[in-house]
Amino acid sequence: MRKIILFVFSLFFVTSVSFAQKEKKEEKKTQKGHTDQNKFRQMKDVMATPNDQHNAAGAPGHQYSQQKVDYLMDIRLEESTNKIYGDEKITYHNNSKDHLEYLWVQLDQNMRADDSQTPLAKSNGASAFLTPNKFKSTYMKEGKGFGFNIEKVESNGAPLSHTINKTMMRINLPNALAPGEIFNFRIKWNYKINDINKDGGRSGLETFPDGNNNYTIAQFYPRLAVYNNVEGWQNMQFWGRSEFALEFGDFEVNLTVPEDHIVEATGSLQNEKEVLTKEQRKRFEKARKSFDNPVMIVTQAEAEKTEKGRATGTKTWKFKAKNVRDYAFATSRKYIWDAMAVNVNGNTIMATSLYPKEGNPLWEEHSTRAIATTLIEYSKLTFDYPYPKAVSVHSERQGMEYPMICFNFGRPNADGTYSDRTKKGMIGVIIHEVGHNFFPMIVNSDERQWTWMDEGLNSFVEILAEDVYDAELFASNPAKDITRYMGGNQDNISPIMSQGDYVKQFGPNAYSKPAAGLYILRKTIMGPELFDHAFRTYSKRWMFKHPTPEDFFRSMQDASGMDLDWFFRGWFYTTDVTDIGIKEVKPLYLTDKQGERIKNIIKTNPRAKTYLEGLGDLVYITDKKEDAKPSAMDKYVNGKEVPAYIYSVEFEKPGGLVMPLIVELTYADGTTEKQTFPAQIWMKDDTTAKRVFASTQEITKITVDPEFETADVDTSNNSWPKPETDKFDKFKEKVKE
Asked: What is the pLDDT of residues 137-174, one digit of tens each?
């Protein structure tokens, strides 16, 4: 690349006498003041004040504490009625400094109960057609019998006072729970399982034509809500979209299912010899040493044989999990099962997949391999994956995550063929849902309020992992892809920093825009080295803890040494857009002649004349090509080639966001050079910025953001000279005339 010498000619002239005299004659006017609206002002007005639990660096403070909740559960799946029966013993550890008068428990299944208010919160017009079942449930108030049936709430064998408020239940404690104390109680319950494809839901069952079911079960037990010093009790109602805030704890779960089912769940299986055949255990031992290819634990032929029968007995699978925030499981007699080992910095993690034959050949080819890639790539950018396994389970229309296990869509056609779109969707959802083990299953943010803190961060790391898995299949530019959303109707866009239930365009808001923002931070603003260190610092600081948005913003700045308030304020707290363009380009020339402007200033301003004479030899810049004289600099450059072409460029910024100014210069010989000016170029003037470019050959084209790095929503002003309008545009202009 050619080395370009930049000339920056700036002449400092004292304000002329005539101008000063003119100002003195003007009448004094009272001016209105204004508050600081500079895009680079600090975010102290929108961020919570640091304290001894969430400190100013974005790390857990010296007084940080969080609650712990342990569960001992006996769960029974009744396949004939599609009901779940549960008996759970809960141990609540009050690690806070507060005395607690009550505990709040989440009853998420009540969201679809017959008396749920979720359907009433939707604005619905009349439909042109409905299925008979939909008509009955909508207009004839025919209930489906969903929701928790709470059989018992007791402590030490005595009934425990409680109040159910839709999807939340308050446990009224006999005595306030003091700091450091624990409270033991029991909840016995049951509920009818929803059909995911008919009734919707994040978990439930999928029914196959042969009468078999695939059970992917979560939110299935009453779960303790989070209590902390930021929110107190996080007891916002579950309306069906914004997800969950949960405490970490230890789980011991006994799952009783039909004896011909295969089960996977959060935690380590405790009784392999009781539930697995000798051959299955032998295959699993082989899988524990296979780091390159999955090993079949249950083959497709074996699964097809099993699904033709119906067991009458049951089998209990026993699992234990330490330090997890939630629990989920999957069970069916239709499952094919494969597994392989994954090396994460010397630790062996098991990646396993369960899927019916309807998922093949796609699932056998990609699911477990996608898990392995996810664990390795996410660990590079965050922390080493701490759990013993990660499981991907296939269900036709699901994409949902839980500790160590997730449920994923992506089904080939009936004949086994599939498109690249299906393949991309299936691999993408597996990487995304397995990635959720890191955010929020370990870095445990409040999903009920800040969806972007898990979905957005996870979607960003997903982009990097997908690129490793198949760069061609997942080729994309997140910054460019988000412009259609950001440049859309402002009435239908919400700031990222909005509670998830009322967000408009939930997907772009909570997933794509935060991910694109982090992509821009890493690629264009911070650079991978600074970004990766800061992102890893945040992730490690908040492993198994409850971070807030402020903790993320502060950690990214604290660990990188970069002031990013301007970026976080604009990208996360507003719906402003990026629009940077070229307003004017003035070709200028080197000369030894004084221009008329300088002559007039010297004539009218003696101080300016004295100043210029004191500088000694001068060369001048002119906009008159006929006065150009590149040789004016010859005696000062010792034979070096003098830039004969000088361009004064004024850039404009109609958009509300500030971004780095990225400029590509194209020269007469076809070569290009890219120059990047930091976002701070807009600090003093939010609408315009000027730069001078000098070259030894003519610049034929100037382009702003040539690689679409800044999410510029309008590129019509990004080039000089402006592209010629097409014939149709010229015709329209003539018609107007």
From this structure: 778 777 889 999 999 999 999 999 999 999 999 999 99
Kind of pairing between the strands at 68-78 and 83-93: antiparallel
In 230-299, which residue ranges form alpha helices assigned H by DSSP? 272-275, 278-287
What pLDDT is attached to residue 725? 59
The predicted pLDDT at position 729 comes to 57
Helix (H, G, I), strand (E, B) or coil at 28: coil
pLDDT of residue 13: 33
**Residue 444: DSSP 8-state:** -
Please state, in angstroms and as integers, the Cα–Cα distance from residue 206 to each residue in 331, 396, 594, following that order: 11, 8, 84
pLDDT of residue 8: 36
State percent of the chain over pLDDT 90: 82
For 149-212, strand residue ranges (E) read 149-155, 158-159, 162-165, 168-177, 182-192, 204-207
Number of other CB atoms surrounding residue 562 within 10 Å: 18
Residue with tokens 């890893």: 536
Q: Across the chain, which distance is largest between two alpha carbons, in Å?
A: 108
Considering the domain delimited by 68-122+130-444, tell me its CATH architecture: Sandwich (2.60)
Per-residue pLDDT, 551? 98
Cis peptide bond prior to 440, omega within 30° of 0: yes
- CB distance 282 to 295 below 8 Å: no
Residue 519 and residue 460 in contact, taking contact as beta carbons nearer than 8 Å: yes
Band of pLDDT at residue 736, cut at 50, 70 and 90: low
Q: Are 374 and 430 in contact (CB under 8 A)?
A: yes
Give me the mean pLDDT over the 534-544 stretch.
98
Where along the chain do its domains lie? 68-122+130-444, 580-736
Residue 76: strand pairing partners: 85, 256
pLDDT per residue as tens digits for the range 473-495: 999 999 999 999 999 999 999 99
Beta bridge partners of 621: 590
What is the model's pLDDT at position 140?
Answer: 79
Residues in a beta bridge with 694: 646
Long-range own/partner contacts, residues 136-142 (CB < 8 A, 24 or more apart): none
Q: Which of 411, 353, 355, 401 is nearest to 378 (CA)?
A: 401
| pLDDT higher than threshold 60 for residue 241 | yes
Question: Could you tell me the strand order of the sheet in which 620-622 lies?
Answer: 620-622, 581-591, 645-652, 688-695
Beta strands in 403-453 (DSSP E): 405-408
How big is the chain by its Cα radius of gyration, in Å? 33
How many CA within 13 A on the CB side of residue 229? 19
Q: Where are the beta strands (DSSP E) in 261-335?
A: 262-265, 268-269, 295-298, 314-324, 329-332
pTM: 0.92
Spell out a b/e string for 26-49, using b for 16 or more CB atoms within 10 Å of the CB, else e.
eeeeeeeeeeeeebbeebeeebee
Average pLDDT over residues 357-375: 98
Q: Are 41 and 175 in contact (CB under 8 A)?
A: no
pLDDT of residue 30: 76
User: How far is residue 103's CA from residue 225's CA, in Å, rounded to a whole number?
Assistant: 8
Residue 164: count other Cβ atoms within 10 Å of its Cβ: 14
Whose tokens are 């009790």? That residue is 233
Helix residue ranges per DSSP H, 56-95 = none
- Tokens read off for 68: 């712990």
> What one-letter code names the amino acid at 213?
N
pLDDT at 14 over 80: no
CA distance 433 to 37: 40
Mean pLDDT within 41-58: 96
> Which one, of 84, 370, 87, lies nearest residue 216 by Cα?
84
Residue 549's identity, in one-letter code, is: P
